[in-house]
Amino acid sequence: MNRSRLAVVALLAVAAAWGSTFFLTKDLLTRMDVADYLALRFLIASVALLLIYPTAIARLDRMDRGRAVALGITYGIAQLVQTEGLRHTDASVSGFVTGMYVVFTPLLAAVILRHKIGRWAWIAVVLATVGLGVLALRGFSLGTGELLTLASAGLYALHIIGLGAWSTPQNAFGLSALQMVVITCVCAVGAIPGGFSVPSNTRDWISVIYMALIAGALALIVQTWAQAHLTPTRAAIAMTMEPVFASSFAVLFGTESVTWRMLTGGALVLAAMFLVELAPRRKFEAEVQHLAQ
């Protein structure tokens, strides 16, 4: 398996980790404030990364540090904006609107990085978008919640583009560690107005630690490494598998049942994935892989 294929598999694992947190987070937020939960989650993840590789950040050059700070601020704000938007709209609508980063990514990449997006990539984007809509959309009205969530989708797209342009196999760990520290600071600022609280029982602590270490620290390291080998468009399409995994975990471990929406939407997202992977490679050769370091 070549590195680009391995990177796609790695991003699928990241999407699975993110999808596994859906029912856990939904339950946890009935007892914790959003900003408190995010700050604690990313703090634990930051400490873990720094303990594993204490000199990772110090090994980054000045430019990489600046890029990591920019990426961390972007992702941290996206997390806060997305969760605030969720307070004002249905979770199903929020899921679809957040998934619009698969559309924003190639559009913004074309403008910012002057990427040439091939026909097959556009077809895959359309398939993935329709699949996300089938999975999550049950009525749509563009109110405050939808606008905030749409803004977060744009920020996630910028984060994907930034990682695709700036990450390398050599700087992946340091970039991840500094991003995590910055994300923690951004979320902590959001937690200041209401005061800071922590989980009150063992089960909640286990959930937070799992989401911090597996869906947080490990997922970001894997994502950063994988995007050193993929274009932003391919990465975004791979990560559209997140709602498919979220639905699967909700059925296996939650209270949801299998529906035609889940089967149809999941099939469309999978079709988009296979289209990107199986289309002739020359269709993607024109895409700019990374910015010069």
From TrEMBL:
Protein name, as recorded: DMT family transporter
Stretches that traverse the bilayer: 35-53, 93-113, 120-141, 147-166, 173-193, 205-223, 260-279
Keywords from the named record: Cell membrane, Membrane, Transmembrane, Transmembrane helix
InterPro entries associated with the record: Diverse_Substrate_Transporter, EamA_dom, EmrE-like
Main location: membrane
Family: Belongs to the EamA transporter family.
Organism in which the protein naturally occurs: Kribbella yunnanensis
Pfam families registered for this protein in UniProt: EamA
